[in-house]
Write a structure and sequence with these properties.
It contains 8 helices and 4 strands, in the order ααααβαββαβαα. With about 190 residues, it is α+β, with helices and mostly antiparallel strands. The protein folds into 2 domains: about 60 residues, no CATH class; about 100 residues, no CATH class.
Length: about 190
């Protein structure tokens, strides 16, 4: 990715990264990608990615989109996708397979920068791993990674269960999904 800009804003997220010695977009992206995967204690406070030194796909990408907004950069879009999560494209161990499923629809956030999709969820993330598993995607705002993303994801799974005439209830599928997330957090 050749895209870069200087972090010059004096708004909160920009000052936070500047205080870490980071002065360009590429430096912040690399720094954020190397932070461990983990949920932050507040889904709507994107500064926690830096303050807690960790983040999920939602918080890390929302943080970066909000940082771009602070610096009046429009070329960075926050994308919410639903993809077919399985052990081949996501490091979830055998959780899905052990429950007799081929995949679970998972909500995942990443960025689209000048049309190029980038995933910085972990240091090993690569959008190519998910590309063929994407069911749908849409552009969202950073604020939508909290309630909107969760409700959208839950409704998608409920519809998938009905359309697939699946034997599992929503609660069971969500428990399997949470076990996958716990596995990712190890």
């Amino acid at each position: 990715m050749d895209f870069d800009f200087s972090i010059t804003s004096l708004r909160p997220l920009s000052v936070l990264v500047q205080n870490k010695g980071l002065s360009t977009w590429k430096e912040v992206v690399d720094y954020t990608k190397d932070l461990p995967y983990g949920r932050n204690r507040n889904r709507t406070d994107f500064s926690l990615v830096i303050k807690e030194g960790k983040g999920s796909c939602s918080s890390k990408h929302a943080f970066l989109r909000a940082l771009a907004e602070e610096n009046s950069i429009d070329e960075v879009e926050l994308i919410l996708a639903i993809y077919k999560m399985n052990s081949a494209n996501t490091k979830v161990g055998t959780v899905i397979d052990d429950n007799g499923l081929s995949y679970i629809p998972e909500a995942h956030c990443y960025l689209k920068v000048e049309g190029e999709r980038i995933d910085i969820t972990t240091s090993g993330s690569n959008f190519t791993n998910l590309k063929m598993a994407i069911i749908e995607e849409q552009t969202i705002t950073p604020e939508q990674v909290a309630d909107f993303k969760v409700q959208y994801h839950k409704q998608f799974i409920k519809n998938w269960i009905l359309e697939s005439e699946m034997e599992f209830s929503f609660d069971i599928i969500w428990q399997i999904r949470e076990a996958c997330i716990a596995f990712l957090s190890k």
